[in-house]
Specification:
By secondary structure, the chain is α+β, with helices and mostly antiparallel strands. Helices cover about 55% and strands about 10% of the residues. Strand 8 and strand 9 form a beta hairpin.
């Protein structure tokens, strides 16, 4: 008996008596359909066997140990990667979103094409069933599922498609999945995705790394082009979204480089930019740390320019405060609910400024081309209060290095001390202008004694204040930052 035959017999026994969600069809027809879809993409018997067995851990009392003993480590691993966590005693409807988010993280972080194929085959079989019922019952269909919200169901299937697209977009299974998603939720994907499409394939082997960020790395591709290579958990939709934000921000006046094409770089997406003789400010500081004050001034002027750009509802930029609220809910709220409430109150109290913020503002995301700054990494462009931008800077140059300075040094390419100096210099204008008001206040406080009561120490303090005020008022002609 070969591996496939044994898998079919084992799955048939384990799923005996179970039926599909819609109708009374034996459940075993689903894993057999998943196996058939898998067989359209590969003739690897372990992958097809895993497709037959993929619901054993979720829907039966079978164990991963037994699957490994019978079918081997690889099959057991693949089955585990397509199985959701169990929440005994809690209604499935109450855990639907948690289970889907947990399982999607497995797909997002997997580089195993077998895992991606198994997910594609499983979800295609599921949506075939949904599409058939939907054509008969329409929106009433959702009431019979654990998740009755159609938008959340769309989010799940769209997320799966986005995460397998780069590797499997040429398969018939992927194209069929897109067609079914668009039939239930029209317009979710560009219909072109359901047709044959080949991305231009490029390699960054031997290319110089010139920038690194949370979303990926930037390489000098040749004398005229740079390429941003996104991390593997970034989907085609993520790249499209960033390019769209960049174009809208550029129209409003934010100096940004615009990608002219999406490419594939191995198992990752990439976007190409025409940046002739351009270098990130991080790389320039690394070469000339003594010039950090000058580069901090360039960054400060750029930040001021960005934060003076007003947006309206038609621009459709997200509210940066929403990101802060999510961070509170998914972080501190898990440790201290009362403190989380205080933080949330502070965030909710931020004025609605309706001005642009970059959202990931640091020297690794700013190129200098002919002395002019150009921003990249535009996926977090938002509207909101500039204090959030300063917080991003403080995180990049101070907080990240508090536990281990090497984190900042590896990320930015220069020492932690230089990073702190950069941040201090960046805020110098704010500090200086605050100092003007503070020195005025200090002089007023000294003179409350009356001229006749002033001591020599008081006169020394007055002279010092006057000297500092002279320098500062010569430097600035406005208190606006």
């Amino acid at each position: 008996m070969n591996l496939l035959e044994e898998a079919i017999i084992y799955a048939t026994i384990m799923h005996q008596g179970q039926t599909r969600k819609f109708g009374t069809s034996p459940f075993i027809l689903h894993p057999m359909e998943v196996a058939q879809i898998m067989a359209s993409m590969t003739d690897d018997q372990e992958l097809i066997s895993a497709a037959i067995l993929h619901d054993i851990l979720e829907n039966t009392d079978g164990s991963a140990e037994e699957i490994e003993k019978r079918f081997g480590k690889r099959v057991a691993f693949l089955v585990s990667q397509s199985s959701e966590n169990a929440y005994p005693g809690i209604p499935p409807a109450d855990t639907w979103m948690v289970r889907k988010k947990e399982s999607l993280r497995i797909l997002e972080n997997s580089t195993d094409i077998g895992v991606q194929m198994l997910w594609l085959a499983d979800q295609l079989a599921n949506i075939r069933s949904l599409a058939g019922v939907y054509s008969e019952r329409g929106e009433a269909m959702w009431q019979d599922l654990h998740q009755v919200d159609s938008d959340k169901q769309c989010w799940y299937y769209r997320s799966v498609a986005e995460n397998v697209e780069l590797v499997l977009n040429k398969t018939g299974a992927f194209k069929e999945l897109i067609r079914h998603i668009n039939s239930i939720w029209p317009g979710t994907f560009d219909s072109e995705k359901a047709r044959y499409r080949k991305y231009r394939e490029v390699s960054v082997d031997g290319c110089r790394l010139i920038g690194r960020g949370a979303k990926g790395e930037v390489y000098r591709y040749n004398d005229e082009l740079v390429i941003k290579v996104y991390n593997q958990n970034n989907t085609y939709r993520d790249v499209e979204r960033e390019i769209s934000f960049a174009r809208r921000a550029f129209v409003l006046g934010m100096p940004t480089a615009i990608s002219f094409g999406i490419v594939s770089v191995g198992d990752c997406y990439g976007s190409m930019y025409e940046l002739v003789d351009a270098n990130t400010i991080s790389s320039l500081i690394s070469k000339s740390p003594g010039q950090v004050d000058n580069y901090a001034k360039i960054m400060a002027d750029l930040a001021k320019m960005i934060h003076e750009i007003s947006v309206d509802e038609d621009d459709e930029f997200p509210d940066v405060a929403d990101r802060l609220r999510d961070r509170i809910r998914d972080g501190i709220a898990l440790d201290d609910a009362a403190l989380a409430a205080k933080c949330l109150k502070l965030v909710n109290g931020l004025p609605q400024t309706h001005t642009l913020v970059h959202g990931d503002f640091h020297t690794g995301n700013v190129f200098l081309q002919n002395g002019e700054p150009l921003l990249i990494d535009m996926d977090r462009v938002s509207q909101g209060h500039p204090i959030t931008e300063i917080a991003d800077l403080y995180n990049s140059y101070v907080i990240l290095g508090e536990d281990d300075p090497a984190v900042v040094e590896n990320f930015m390419g220069f020492s932690y001390a230089t990073a702190q100096r950069f941040f201090d210099t960046f805020l110098r204008e704010v500090t200086d202008k605050a100092a003007i008001l503070c020195l005025i206040r200090k002089l007023n406080r000294i003179h409350r004694k009356g001229m006749s009561a002033l001591t020599e120490t008081d006169h020394e303090r007055i002279r010092n204040c006057l000297e500092r005020l002279t320098v500062l008022t010569d430097r600035y002609d406005t208190l606006v930052c």
